[in-house]
Amino acid sequence: MKHKEENKNCRTWAAWLILTVGLGLLALLMAFSITKGSVPIPIQTVWEAFCHFDAENTRHLIVIDARLPRVVASALVGAAFAVAGSIMQGMTRNPMADSGLLGLNAGAGFALSVCFAFFPTMNYHQLILFSFLGAAFGAGIVNGVASLPRGGASPMRLVLAGAAVSALLTAISQGIALYFGVAQNIMFWTVGGVAGSNWEQIRIITPWILGALMGAVVLSRSVSLLSLGEEVAKGLGLNTLVINVLCSLVVLILAGASVSVVGAVGFIGLMVPHLARFLVGVDYRLIIPSSAVLGAILVVLADLGTRTLNPPFEVPIGALIALVGVPFFLVLARRQRRAF
Q1: Which H/E stretch holds residue 312?
Q2: What is 2-339's CATH number?
């Protein structure tokens, strides 16, 4: 009993360490990231742009209007994807759950391609709404396909169905883009990136993402109970139907808003929750906030890498994250097969 209590205290301290040190590291990385790019900018100039902005100074304009929006968008999107993956893994008890692997990202991308082709005059608010609907559409198809065989939707069936549905929706999206001449517009969302982020987008998505992150923290205790199994959760007095609906709504908001900015970037919601779980244990009251910080750090680092690996050109952020995400997925899949 004493050992369990000590272990719990250690996990709590680890979570607080991630939140405090991690947030400080995130701030430093964001500041450093602003200085890097095709035009290197000294940190002193960055500080001057914040304190004494001069609209006639080209470097000040680059800092405020180009680089600062993209690092802020990177942090928001990283936190959103990571928390979405955490909730999905907890509520489904599927360690391979991720918005990219289970069709949400591809569904949101499909909805965006339809908007560009048939409703080109849509504003950004409407695009985000369609991203939510597209994410729900993709997730619904994946769950439906995975549930068709006898025995229901096992974790491996969900992943296989997600891969097939994602490939189908991506192919349809590209076909629509080519046929209606909007391939250049949709290509950015296909490869993923934050280069086109601007203050208008951030102003719109920030309330959605922050509200959903707060909702995830509120639901974290219930997610911990769901991760023990639906029957156990019901036995402990949890209304599993309501919690599942609320968790699904939070995931759709986080994934839909993120895809509308950065595109269909996968593996963030797969890798980060596992890292958080390794550091802070199985309590989602600790996993969810830790995942938010670690996810933000990961995407800010990835965005920094896209600008520094092959200057003055940029590497797609989705491809860079996939270099780590694909081996991680293969190792995890092998472990799951052995366990099965």
Answers
A1: none
A2: 1.10.3470.10
